[in-house]
Amino acid sequence: MSDMSATKQLAGDMNSPAPQHSEVPLGTSTDNNVSSTNNNMSTWAMSNLQKLNVTELYTQQRQSLRPWLDFFNTNQFKPPANIKAGARRLVFNVEHFQTNYFIVIIILSIYCIITTPALLFILLAMGAGCYLVSLKNRESPLTIMNHQIAISQQYLAVFCLCVPLLLMVGAGSAIFWILGASVFVIFLHALFHQTPNQEAFGVQMEEMAPSSDYILEFKIDVFKTLKIVGITTGVLTAIGLGAYYIHRRTQSSKRVILRDEVRNILRPFQLTEEQLRRVMANLNTEMTNGLKSDDTENLDLAMFPTYVHHGPSGQESGEYLVVDLGGSNFRVSHVSIEGRNRMRLNNKIFLIPHSLLLGEGEKLFDYIAECLQRFIDDNKLSLLKSANYKFDLAFTFSFPCKQTSLREATLVSWTKGFSCTSVVGNDVVLMLQQAIDRRKGLKIQVVALVNDTVGTLMACSSIYRDCKAGVILGTGTNACYFENLDNVPKWTGVRDNIHKQVIINTEWGALGRHGCLDFIRTDIDRELDESSLTPHQQVFEKMISALYLGEIVRLIIVDLVQRSILFPGRMQKSPSIRPDYNIFLILRGSFYAKHVADIENDTTEDLSITTTILTSIGIHDPSYDDCYIIREVCKTVSLRAAKLAAAAVAVLINRLNMSSVTVAIDGTLFRHHQQFKHNLTRTLGRLVPRTHRLVLSEDGSSKGSALVAAVDRRLKTAPMTYDKTNLPS
Ligand code: GLC
Asked: Positions of the region Disordered (predicted)?
């Protein structure tokens, strides 16, 4: 048997059953012959197609599966003698091992799919969809508007629905990866695996090439060369692509391993809806308990009645001074209310020296009085006033105070980094009044003490009649809302038709003081708490508010640096940058909420905003990976804060139990941190189905305090009989 016929036989073996028409000698057919051959072919094809079923196909492929021992036999791997021999090997092996290669492709595909869970999920969904289609069609065919939809069209529809989803979860790159990796593996195997007969048949084939017909030989050579060049180019491109995708995949899997470590650290910060609902339940219980008694030692929430019983009616008027103290600076404002809730505001921010925040209380109040004097003088407010004229002043004092009237308020404890001596336990209205009176010539009477949440609510309720709650999401966090006095057992004041409700200052930042948030607190939260000015207090606030967000992120970064996940080896390699790192790593409060917001919003391709921020705080040349991880940390911490804030707002909305409610919100997180606001709104939508609206209360804490004083003045001059409008429905 010649080698040529041996080749034919080999090919015949592999493709059995061989089609009969291959035996028809070329060049001898007439037209009739051709048509009869075609007829034969189509008859053959039809009959074979009819016979062909999955089992047969499987059996055929099974038969052409080469033994795996042979496939992996390392003795058989040798480089080809030359390019031609290599090309022949490729062609032969691809055909010879076709089933084995097919299985290799399937294994690579399975690997790719199971390492991309989203892809796997959508493929399963697609499978389920097709199964449902087949089930449905078994019962009765699908008909839409009297038009029967073929089952193939239904499958096509399922496929078309899934395609965009597949593309979204990266099916495109998965296909490229499978293609690249398969071609890479198959090419190497087919090139290096010797063909049976020790390559002999290839050499002899070469010898057998007809030499008499020069033109034919030339044509064959050109054809062969083109074929080899084509195959080589294709294969090299495929190798390139394969190598590129394998590189990308190993890169990303390196990233995934890296990120897995980071994820383990971040996981406790990722709150589930179930956890949020538990937070809601606990907050609600603590609110109810707080309304029953004043036992602030044993209760989480103080739930202070504020002695504000009514929102503005639109009849208020007059001019007021407002001192707004609550953050690291304070604001003095002059507010003119001109009827129908039209207000003009003129204000000035004064910085509070750090020494005053932690120094003697009396000095702080003296400083406030001094600033008031400067403000009045600078704005010539006394110019047209009579000698006896006294300004009414509303004192926005954003710390937990137990009030016994609108102008009597005892400070229970400092929060938010304040810690002046001799103020806790004293009436802060009196302290401010005494400081004012110590300055001869300053004619001011303090007429109301207002928490910033109450100011926020009042300012907004002058515009939205259904605004019954005020929330601060800023340096600290807190909320107030209108509560029916029937629900406030601890209220000892007047209860009548005019006093049917009161604004309750919840002081919800204190939630968790007795452990009800321990199930979501992380080690970082505990570390932050222990090193704060107020250990074991304001637990909820320390997880949410702007004063603490930056510090939480900083502590996580320090943890990641200590684990050599961030800036690996940099501290050791570059001693020159150690001092900078040390400042950042050691200094409490050196990373701000503003940094968190800016980094979280960094969508630049090279994370250049993050790089700039890190550089500005002394971390020079952070790598892309460092920036990426830090952005993940910022996102996670900020998302947790937004979710917790949403859970708390949801409780307020539920308690108000109105068909639609507006919540007034102020504070830097809500005002300036867009992603925080977005996450808050989205989570809230999931937690409360009730109609609600979140409204930014512009300058609420100043305008609203002036309104509190104005409502009080109006009620004194024209006492009301019954105000129906302000009752929660
Ligand atoms: C703190 C204060 C609270 C204030 C809040 C927002 O939680 O205790 O009174 O409303 O910060 O400023």
From this structure: 1-33
Q: Which residue has the least CA distance to atom 4 on ligand 1? A: 398
667 closest CA partner among 507, 508, 506, 478: 478
Task: Pinpoint the alpha helices (H) of 293-442.
Answer: 354-358, 361-378, 428-438
Kindly give the parts of the chain with pLDDT less than 50: 1-52, 198-218, 220, 251-257, 573-577, 722-729
Domain segments of the chain: what residues? 55-252
Q: What is the pLDDT of residues 376-385, one digit of tens each?
A: 999 999 998 8
Please, which residues have CB within 8 angstroms of residue 283's CB and are 6 or more apart in sequence?
508, 511, 647, 648, 651
Max CA pair span of the chain: 130
Catalytic annotation, residues: 331, 398, 452
Dist. CA 336 → ligand 1 center (Å): 26
Residue ranges in 657-699 assigned as alpha helix (H):
668-672, 674-687
Atom in ligand 1 nearest the alpha carbon of residue 399: 9
- Count of alpha carbons within 13 Å of 349, Cβ hemisphere only? 6
Count of all residues that appear for the chain in the document = 729
Best residue among 395, 418, 507 to mutate for probing ligand 1's pocket (most ligand atoms within 8 Å of CB) is 507
Identify the residues whose C-beta falls under 6 Å from ligand 1: 326, 398-400, 415-416, 451-453, 472, 474, 476-478, 507, 509, 541
Kindly report the protein residue whose alpha carbon is nearest to atom 11 of ligand 1: 476
Distance from Cα 608 to the centre of ligand 1, integer Å: 35
**What distance in Å separates the CA atoms of residue 666 and residue 467, rounded to the nearest whole number?**
14
Q: How far is the CA of 477 from the centre of ligand 1 (A)?
A: 5
* Residues 184/246, Cβ–Cβ less than 8 Å: yes
pLDDT digits (tens, 9 = 90+) for 398-448: 999 999 999 999 999 999 988 899 999 999 999 999 999 999 889 999 999
Going from the Cα of 592 to the center of ligand 1, the distance in angstroms, rounded, reads: 19
Residue 627 to residue 259: CA distance in whole angstroms: 13
666 class by beta-carbon count within 10 Å (0-12 exposed, 13-18 middle, 19+ buried): buried
